[in-house]
Design a protein that fits this description.
Layout lengths: L6 H22 L6 H14 L3 E5 L2 H11 L7 E4 L6 H8 L3 E4 L2 E2 L4 E2 L12 E4 L11 H11 L2 E5 L7 E2 L2 E2 L6 E5 L13 E5 L2 H10 L21 H35 L10 E2 L5 E4 L3 H10 L29 H9 E4 L7 H12 L9
Parallel strand pairs: 2-3, 2-6, 6-7, 7-10
Antiparallel strand pairs: 1-11, 4-5, 8-9, 8-12, 10-11, 13-14
Bound molecules: pyridoxal-5'-phosphate.
The site of pyridoxal-5'-phosphate has 14 residues, from helix 3 and helix 4.
């Protein structure tokens, strides 16, 4: 059995470090924010090549607060794509703004930069490119549109810890960057967590207030804030895991290269690493027009797979209010129908990769029906 994700294997490899870190927090009893979170923020900011990082309690909270810090609210529009995890869109509505969707560029699965400008209206305040699956969006044209049209650019880097665009790190390129530390992420907490990165000291200050009831001084509330604080135990665990992240990312990249080599030979459409990108392969998604059969065949061979994401946001019943319909975003709809995510994590072995590739190569669903 090859699981889609194996969090236990990673835990076993760092167990002693994690237990010592957790024990330190229990001894200090600094359970909410505190010194471990403060140290993690400094270390994570350095990792992202960003001046500031603010720890929060999820990637969704990170997005919500990034919009609020940038002054985005009711009456405003934010541009993003429908081929993403729902939080990219729901967080725009949390801030009271309206999500406006733009199709993806099919090779990269990220926002099609050539379609952004026609979605801009007098109410547009921001663009939220999503670095989907661990590959950065095509940031230079997006940042150029942002500068020229006076729009804030916020990176949804929830899946892209350590990813790079022309040598620049995810979270360092735009006005704000939002990360998730959900357990399955490339850098995952042992519970929920998130962070916002920024170079702007005013945003940094506002984010720190907003995550903690809008106050800098206890019981003095300057802003209407939230309880979005990062827990001390998560900060301590994330510090341990951050020390391993580069090695884990290199392992992911090596595994992805091995898969791609084997799958190219089998004629499978494997993920493209764009010329500008250092892809960190949070998700390794192949494409097939016979997905259901292929997934069932792999399952029968003991190989778990995932689908990220089967329904684009504009076709989700919960987002009918946005007024979109089938056919509005053909590239996103086609991707949603065809993607299949293979097991990919640092602890995967060469033998497992070969087993998955062999199962794919031999899968009848990949052989054209005669
Ligand atoms: C692209 C994207 N944005 C936002 C989020 C939200 O993060 P969280 O689950 O930590 O709230 C996630 C992850 O779940 C994500 O994949």
């Amino acid at each position: 059995m090859i699981p889609y994700l194996d969090l236990k294997a990673q835990y076993r490899s760092i167990k002693d470090e994690v237990l010592a870190a957790v024990s330190g927090v229990l001894e200090s009893s600094q359970f909410v924010l505190g010194p471990e979170v403060a140290s993690f923020e400094k270390e994570f900011a350095a990792f992202c090549h960003a001046p500031h990082a603010v720890g929060v309690n999820s990637g969704t909270s990170a997005l919500h607060l990034a919009f609020l810090a940038a002054g985005i609210g009711p009456g405003d529009e934010v541009i993003t794509t429908p081929f993403t995890f729902v939080a990219s869109v729901s967080s725009i509505e949390y801030a009271g703004a309206r999500p406006v969707l733009v199709d993806i560029e099919p090779r990269s699965f990220t926002i099609d930069v050539n379609q952004i400008e026609r979605a801009i209206t007098p109410r547009t305040k921001a663009i939220l490119p999503v670095h989907l699956f661990g590959q950065p969006a095509d940031m230079d044209p997006i940042l150029e549109i942002g500068r020229r049209r006076g729009l804030t650019v916020i990176e949804d880097a929830a899946q892209a810890h350590g990813a790079e665009y022309k040598g620049r790190r995810a979270g360092s390129m735009a006005d704000l960057g939002c990360f998730s530390f959900y357990p399955g992420k490339n850098l995952g907490a042992y519970g929920e967590g998130g962070a916002v990165t920024t170079a702007n000291p005013e945003y940094d200050r506002k984010l720190r207030m907003l995550r903690d009831w809008g106050s800098e001084k206890k019981y003095e509330h300057v802003l209407k804030g939230f309880n979005y604080r990062m827990e001390g135990i998560q900060g301590a665990i994330l510090r341990v895991k951050l020390r391993h992240l580069e090695a884990w990312t290199e392992a992911r990249r090596a595994h992805a290269a091995a898969y791609s080599r084997l799958l190219a030979a089998a004629g499978v459409e494997y993920p493209h690493e764009m010329p500008y990108a250092r892809h960190v392969y949070h998700v390794y998604a192949i494409r097939t027009t016979r997905r259901a059969e292929l997934q069932a065949q792999l399952q029968a061979a003991g190989i778990q797979t995932g689908i990220h994401y089967p329904i684009p946001v504009h076709l989700q019943p919960a987002y009918a209010n946005l007024g979109y319909k089938q056919g509005d975003f053909p590239a996103a709809e086609k991707a949603a129908a065809e993607v299949l995510s293979l097991p990919l994590y640092p602890e995967l072995t060469a033998a497992q990769i070969e087993e998955v590739a062999a199962a794919l190569s031999n899968a009848p669903a990949l052989t054209p029906a005669r």
